[in-house]
What we know:
This protein has a 6-stranded mixed beta sheet, with helices on both faces. Strands 7-11-8-10-9 form a 5-stranded mixed beta sheet, with helices on both faces. By secondary structure, the chain is an alpha+beta fold. It has 2 domains: 3-30 and 264-457, 2-Layer Sandwich (Cytochrome Bc1 Complex, Chain A, domain 1); 45-246, Cytochrome Bc1 Complex, Chain A, domain 1 (2-Layer Sandwich), CATH 3.30.830. The chain is built from 17 helices and 11 strands. It has helices spanning 3-20, 86-93, 103-112, 137-149, 155-172, 176-188, 201-206, 209-219, 235-246, 295-305, 312-321, 351-365, 372-390, 393-405, 412-421, 425-435, 449-457; strands at 45-48, 54-59, 65-72, 118-121, 126-133, 225-231, 267-272, 278-286, 329-332, 339-347, 442-447. Mean pLDDT is 90; it is low at 1-41.
Amino acid sequence: MDLRRTTLRVACTALAFLAIGPAVARPQGKPAVRAPAPAPPIAPRTFALKNGMRVTFIRTGTVRRAFVSLVLETGEIDEPAFGPGLAALTADMLLQGTVARSAQKITSEATALGTKLAVRAGPVSTTVSGDVPTAAVPRFLSLVGDVVRHPLLDTAGFERVRRNALRMLDSTMQNPADRARQQWRAMIFPDGPYGQPYSYSATLRMLQLGHVRNVFDDSYSAARAHLFVSGVFDVVATEKVVRGIFSDWKAGDPPPPHAVRTATVHQLVTSDDPGATRSVTWIGLPTIDPEHPDFAKLEVADMLVAGGDSSRVAIDLAAIEGTAPHGTSTLWQRRHATYWADVLDVRTVNTGAALGALIGELTALTREQPTEAEVARARAAVIAALQARNSSREGLVALVEFMEEHSLGQDWSAEHARRVMAVTPADVRAAVESFLDPLHMAIVIVGDRASIEPQVAKLRPLVP
C-alpha cells in the first residue's frame, strides 16, 4: 500500500469520527453466536424436452402445495439501447389475454386455483409463476403454457399496459431512493440496460406494439425456457403434463452472449430536492462475482459493516438519527456484473455525518481487524439469511436459478456455507481493503443541495 493511500485512509477515518462524534460502543464480551447447521445439498431432477426446454423438479416439504415457475432467458439485458422498459411491457402483455382466454378469464382461473399468476421481467430473465395446491398443478401448468405461447398482443391491451407503465414510472421517479438508484447505476454501468433500471416517459411513449411482438417472436421460445416445479407433487404425472403442454413449442434460438462493462469511478453527484427534510445516498462500487473464491469473505464483511440491524453502520446511524436506521447494504449479483452498495436514508441535517460514518467504518477495517465475536455474529447472520432465503419452495427455485446463472454447480450451496463459517477477522479486513475501498466508490445523493453541500465539503478531498 502506498503512503498516499494510507494517509488518505487515516484522514478519512478522522473526518468520519469528527462528523459523528465518539464511536458507539460495540459489544465485545458476548459469546460468539453459533450458526445454524448448513442445509443439506439440493438434489433436483432436471431433464430437457426435444425442443430444448429444460425442466427441473424439486421435491421438498410436507405441505401439499407446489411453486411453479417458468423462467425465460430474456429480460432487461436484451433491451435495445433505445428501449429501456421494453422487457417489462412485453411481460405485462402476457396477462392482457390469449387467443383462448380474456384477461379477466386468466385472472379468474388463477384465483379459482388458489393463486395469482405473477409475471415479472427482471435484469436477465422473465418469470411466469404461482404457488398452487398440489391438485391444481396440472391446470396451472396449462394456464402458464397458454399465456407464454399464445398471448393476444393486441393494440387495446398494449395501450392499457403502456398507460399503467407511465403511471408507475411517474410514481417511481417521485421517490428519492429510486432517483438515486437510477443515477448511481448509470455511473457504474455506462453501457447497456443495467445502467437504466427504469425507463423514461418519452421512451415508453415511443415504443410500439410492433416492438413487443418482435421481442416475443425472438425470445419467447423453448430454447430459452426453464420450467421449475418445487414442493409436494406427483413427479411422474407432472412430467406427463409438462410434455403434453410444451413438447410442440417452437424451439427458437438460445440467448446470445452478453458482455457487461462496469466502471469503477470515484465521483460524487448530488441531485437537488429543494427543501427536502430527508436525503438518500447511494454509495458503492462494482465488486467480485459469486464464483470468486473470496466471495464468502466479502459477504461476511458486508454483514459486519452494513448488512443488518446489528452492523457497525446501523449502530452508528441509530446514534446519529436517534431512531432505527432506514436503508441497508446490498450485494446485487448478476452474471459478471456484481456490485456492492449501501443506501443511507437519513434526515437532511445528518447527511454528512451518515456518509462519514460509513466511510469511517470501512477505513477503520483496513487498519485493524474486527474482533472474533463480531465476525462470529456476522457469519451466523449470513448463514441464517441464506437458510431463510433457501428454505421455501420459491426460495429453492431461486437458489437453483442463481447457481445456474453463475455456473456454480449443484454443490455450491453447502460448500459456500462452509466457506462462510471459515471466514476469520483477518479475512474480513482483507476483503474490505480489496473489495470495499471507499476511495473507489461512486456516490449519489438526492436531497436539499443547499444543506448537503456544506456537509459533504467537510469530507473532501476524500469524497470527490
